[in-house]
Specification:
heterodimer, A: mainly beta, B: mainly alpha, PP2A_PR55_CS (chain A), Serine/threonine-protein phosphatase 2A 55 kDa regulatory subunit B (chain A)
Chain lengths: ~425, ~250
C-alpha cells in the first residue's frame, strides 16, 4: 500500500475517497446498516479502486511530474453516478464512478461470447433483455483539465454553484467551468514581475460553502485573504485581509516558517474559517480581520525544538484540519500518529493515537499525553521519544455523524463514536 | 531523536539569559548558532536546486529565513566584520548562491529575467558606508561576467548596481548625441579617466549598439571577441564587460 496523500468524505458521508502517492484513488462505501447486526454500525468497505494519475515527464523542462494525488473533492450527487475531482501537481481530472448491475442478454447479431453470428443462421428475432449481474463499479475520466498551472497545485475547491471550481498553485488561482477543459480564468496571480521579490506563496484556497462569489486563500506568511469575484476579473485586491499581529516575545528566525498556513477550511455555516499553521489551529470570524477568535495549541512542546525540526525538514510538514458536521469540534494531526480534537464549546481537547499496536479494533481509544519535562508519568510519552516519521497530515470528518478517517502514512483508520 | 551533528541547544531557548558574564558568554554562541543556521539554510537551498522540481513554498521560506539572518547580521555589524576579514568575493558568493539556488530549473527554462543578487547588494548599499558600498558594487559587477558564463543568467539588470559608471555613461550618451566628436575631450572632462581607456570604451559602445541579447551573452563567454579588448590592459577586461552590460540595458 502506498502513502495516503488525501482523504475526503462525500457530501452524504456514504463514500470515503483516499488518494495516494502512486496516483491511485480508493473509494470506500459504507455498508447499509442491517437489523441483524445492530452493533455493527455501517462499516466502510472498498467500493472502487482506479488509477487516477500516471507519472508524466515534461520534456520541455526535463522535469518529472509526480502522480501523487494532492487533493480529492467530491461533487454533490445529482444522479445515480458519483463524481469527484482529483488532482496531482499539474492536472485536475473529473472522474465518474458509476455502478453497473445489469447487462443486456439476447442480442441477435452476436452470441453470448460476443462472437458475430452468421446472418444466414438467424431464423428468429428476439428482443434483448436486461439481466442482473454482479455489481461492477467502474470509474471513467470524464474531463481532464490540464496545462493551466506552471506551479504545483495545492488545492481544489468545488464552488457552491456546482458549475465551477477553482484550482490553486503556489502563485496562481484558476477558475474552471466543469464543461470546459481547454480554458480557465485566472482569478489570482501573486507572481511578482521581478522574480527576486518572490517572498510569499499561496498555500491553500477554498470556495465559500454558500456564496459562489467568495473564496479565501492563505499564504506562507500566515495571512488569509478573502476575495469577491464580483469586484473584478482578477482578484488581486482582497476584500478582507486576515492577519494576527506577531507576538514579539515569541520571535525567532523560525517565526515566519511556523506561521505559514498549511490548510484553510470554511466552517459548514460559512461564518468562520479555520487555519492550520505549524504549531496551532486558529478559528477566525469572517467579520473580524485583525485576529482569530480562537487559537488552539496542537503541539506547543515542539516550540523549543524548532531548530532540530528545521534541520530534518519536519518544520515544512503541511498538516490539514477539519470541522465536524456541526462546527463544534475541530480536528488536526500531529506526530507519532497522534491526532488532536478540540471542542470549541467546552474548550476540552484530547489527543488520540492511530496505531494498530496500541489499540485493538473496536476498543475505545485511550487519550494520550505528551510530557514536556520533569517526571514522566506512566502512559505518558516524552517529547524526545516521539516518532517524527509517523505524521498524520490528512484527516476527514463525516458530514453529519461522528465518524472520522485518519490517514497514518500508508494506513487508513476509521473511528466511530462508541455505540451505547 | 534526530540528532545529526548539529548541537541540540538552540538559541531559541537562550533568550532568558541574565547577568553580564553569562550574557557575554552567550553572545558568541548566539552568533555561532546563527551562523550555523545560515549555513544549514544555504545547504538546504542547494539541495532544493538539485531536486527535479523543488518545492516552491519550502524554497521561499528558507530564502526568507536566510534574508532575515543576513539582515540581522548586517544590523549587528557582524556582516561587515565578516566582509573585512574574508575576501569580499567569498561572502558575495554565498549571497549570490542563495538567490541562484532558490530558483528552480523551471524558471531557467522559461527564460525568466532574473537579476542576480540585486536584493542582497541592495541591502548592502543601503546599510553600509558609502566607501564600502562602492567597493561592493564594483566587486558585484565584476561577479557578473563570471556568473553569466555559467549560462545561468540571462541579462543582468544593473539597476541595483548603479554606481559611478552609469552616471558617467549617461552623461556620455547624452553629450555624444548632441555634440560633435571634436569636443570629445570636453565630454570626458567630468569623467574619471583613470577607470577606463577612452578608445576602448568608445569602440565598445559602438559595437554594442548593434548587439542583441544573445550576442552579448556570447560576448561574456568569449571575452576576446571585440577588437577593443585586444588593446585593453588585462585589468580593464572586466570593466569592459561592465560597460557592455550597462549599454545593453
Amino acid at each position: 500500500a502506498d502513502i495516503i496523500s488525501t482523504v475526503e468524505f462525500n457530501h452524504t458521508g456514504e463514500l470515503l475517497a483516499t488518494g495516494d502517492k502512486g496516483g491511485r484513488v480508493v473509494i470506500f462505501q459504507r455498508e447499509q446498516e442491517s437489523k441483524n447486526q445492530p452493533h455493527r454500525r455501517g462499516e466502510y468497505n472498498v467500493y472502487s479502486t482506479f488509477q487516477s494519475h500516471e507519472p508524466e515527464f515534461d520534456y520541455l523542462k526535463s522535469l518529472e511530474i509526480e502522480e501523487k494525488i494532492n487533493k480529492i473533492r467530491w461533487l454533490p450527487q445529482q444522479n445515480a453516478a458519483y463524481f469527484l475531482l482529483s488532482t496531482n501537481d499539474k492536472t485536475v481530472k473529473l472522474w465518474k464512478v458509476s455502478e453497473r448491475d445489469k447487462r443486456p442478454e439476447g442480442y441477435n447479431l452476436k452470441d453470448e461470447d460476443g462472437r458475430l453470428r452468421d446472418p444466414s443462421m438467424i431464423t428468429v428475432l428476439r428482443v434483448p433483455v436486461l439481466r442482473p449481474m454482479d455489481l461492477m463499479v467502474e470509474a471513467t475520466p470524464r474531463r481532464v483539465f490540464a496545462n493551466a498551472h506552471t506551479y504545483h497545485i495545492n488545492s481544489i475547491s468545488v464552488n457552491s454553484d456546482y458549475e465551477t471550481y477553482m484550482s490553486a498553485d503556489d502563485l496562481r488561482i484558476n477558475l474552471w467551468n466543469f464543461e470546459i477543459t481547454n480554458q480557465s480564468f485566472n482569478i489570482v496571480d501573486i507572481k511578482p514581475a521581478n522574480m527576486e521579490e518572490r517572498t510569499e506563496v499561496i498555500t491553500a484556497a477554498e470556495c465559500h460553502p454558500h456564496h459562489c462569489n467568495t473564496f479565501v486563500y492563505s499564504s506562507s506568511k500566515g495571512t488569509i485573504r478573502l476575495c469577491d469575484m464580483r469586484a473584478a476579473a482578477l482578484c488581486d485586491r482582497h476584500a478582507k485581509f486576515f492577519e494576527e499581529p506577531e507576538d514579539p516575545s515569541n520571535r525567532s528566525f523560525f517565526s515566519e516558517i511556523i506561521s505559514s498556513i498549511s490548510d484553510v477550511k470554511f466552517s459548514h455555516s460559512g461564518r468562520y474559517i479555520m487555519t492550520r499553521d505549524y504549531l496551532t489551529v486558529k478559528v477566525w470570524d469572517l467579520n473580524m480581520e485583525n485576529r482569530p477568535i480562537e487559537t488552539y495549541q496542537v503541539h506547543d512542546y515542539l516550540r523549543s525544538k524548532l531548530c532540530s525540526l528545521y534541520e530534518n525538514d519536519c518544520i515544512f510538514d503541511k498538516f490539514e484540519c477539519v470541522w465536524n458536521g456541526s462546527d463544534s469540534v475541530i480536528m488536526t494531526g500531529s506526530y507519532n500518529n497522534f491526532f488532536r480534537m478540540f471542542d470549541r464549546n467546552t474548550k476540552r481537547d484530547v489527543t488520540l493515537e492511530a496505531s494498530r499496536e496500541n489499540s485493538k479494533p473496536r476498543a475505545i481509544l485511550k487519550p494520550r499525553k505528551v510530557c514536556v519535562g520533569g517526571k514522566r508519568r506512566k502512559d505518558e510519552i516524552s517529547v524526545d521519544s516521539l516518532d517524527f516519521s509517523k505524521k498524520i497530515l490528512h484527516t476527514a470528518w463525516h458530514p453529519s455523524e461522528n465518524i472520522i478517517a485518519v490517514a497514518a502514512t500508508n494506513n487508513l483508520y476509521i473511528f466511530q463514536d462508541k455505540v451505547n | 531523536m534526530f540528532v545529526r551533528g548539529l548541537k541540540r541547544k538552540c538559541f531559541d531557548g537562550e533568550e532568558d539569559i541574565e547577568g553580564t558574564l553569562a550574557g557575554i558568554k552567550a553572545i558568541p554562541s548566539y552568533n555561532l548558532q546563527r551562523q550555523s543556521l545560515l549555513d544549514m539554510s544555504l545547504v538546504k537551498l542547494q539541495l532544493c536546486h538539485m531536486l527535479v522540481e523543488p518545492n516552491l513554498c519550502r524554497s521561499v521560506l528558507i530564502a526568507n529565513t536566510v534574508r532575515q539572518i543576513q539582515e540581522e547580521m548586517t544590523q549587528d555589524g557582524t556582516w561587515q566584520m565578516i566582509n573585512t576579514q574574508s575576501p569580499g568575493q567569498a561572502s558575495l558568493d554565498r549571497l549570490v548562491s542563495t538567490d541562484i539556488l532558490c530558483r528552480s530549473s523551471r524558471d531557467q527554462a522559461e527564460g525568466k529575467h532574473l537579476p542576480a543578487y540585486g536584493a542582497f547588494s541592495k541591502d548592502f548599499e543601503s546599510d553600509q558606508a558609502q566607501e564600502s558600498s562602492e567597493t561592493m558594487s564594483t566587486t558585484s559587477s565584476v561577479q557578473a561576467p563570471r556568473n553569466l558564463q555559467s549560462n545561468v543568467w540571462e541579462m543582468e539588470n544593473p539597476q541595483e548596481n548603479k554606481g559611478n559608471f552609469q552616471k558617467s555613461l549617461d552623461q556620455i550618451f547624452e553629450t555624444l548625441e548632441n555634440k560633435s566628436p571634436n569636443s570629445v575631450e570636453d565630454l570626458f572632462s567630468e569623467v574619471d579617466n583613470s577607470y577606463y581607456d577612452l578608445d576602448t570604451m568608445l569602440t565598445g559602445m559602438m559595437s554594442n549598439t548593434k548587439m542583441g541579447h544573445c550576442d552579448s551573452l556570447e560576448t561574456f563567454s568569449s571575452p576576446t571577441n571585440t577588437a577593443s579588448n585586444s588593446n585593453c590592459k588585462s585589468d580593464l577586461n572586466d570593466l569592459d564587460h561592465i560597460v557592455e552590460i550597462l549599454v545593453e540595458s
